[in-house]
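Hello again, I could really use a second opinion on something today. My current little project is about how a certain protein chain folds up. You're getting the sequence in one-letter code plus the fold written as tokens. Here's the protein in full, and shout if anything looks odd to you:
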Amino acid sequence: MGIAKIDCFAGASGDMFLGAWLDLGISEDVWLKGVRPLMSGEGEIEIVRTIKQEISAMRVLVRHEEGHVHRHLADVESIIDGTDLPGVVRQKSKEAFFQLAVAEASIHGTSPESIHFHEVGAIDAIVDIVGTMWAWHLAGEPDCYVSPIEVGGGSALCAHGRVPVPAPAALALLKGMPIYSSGLWGETTTPTGAAIIRVLAKPMPLRSMRVESIGYGAGTKDLPVANVLRISLGEWADVGPSDTHALRLPRAHGGHVHHHDHDWHEHSENRSEHYPLHVEEGLVT
């Protein structure tokens, strides 16, 4: 099974997840065969390689012209259940949309069943979420862990009008996760990306990892940092007790990383504000 570390230094969105998984070497033909039924024979999915600030990344473009369709949770679940995808893929996908509905309902003061999905109910968003769960399955269903998450800043225009960034639904979905903002970058982590993280990932513990393969998924923005999401596949590294002193040694000193006994969940409220300092000290996770 292995593990997957998801690095969100430029945020996270559904299309960025798709690109990163596919960049890891998942069969495009097999993946496309699984997600095309979601589009009912309409539209197209384009997979291209692009460069983001000298980093080669995969870009997945889902084009489907259906206008402004407002779907309820039951409508989206019906579309997902109409596919022949494995049960775990359908279950994870429906869980992501349920979490989205719960987040929206908490904001609007209604029930999850009553929520009208706007942007996240469109076919491209459905492909983003279901396609990510399908790609995760094709990658061997690794245990996923997420880095501190760049959530953006400022405001963004959505179906409800102008909202603060991160969008209220995205922020609600990221409760308990380490987050931070690098300033007024606009929306970097979308509700779709946040829902995927909520269902698939746990905060990354302070523990060493042996990386075996790396994938980069490109977003649409041009930011001060390369607008990509990185997924690293590998295994936990076996580290002996003698390495426990080296956690905060600078990289130049060649320090090893040890297995930290505390999980990110225990410090989720304050890890994010200290994380840049840890990076400067050479913390390796």
The two ends are 19 Å apart (CA to CA).
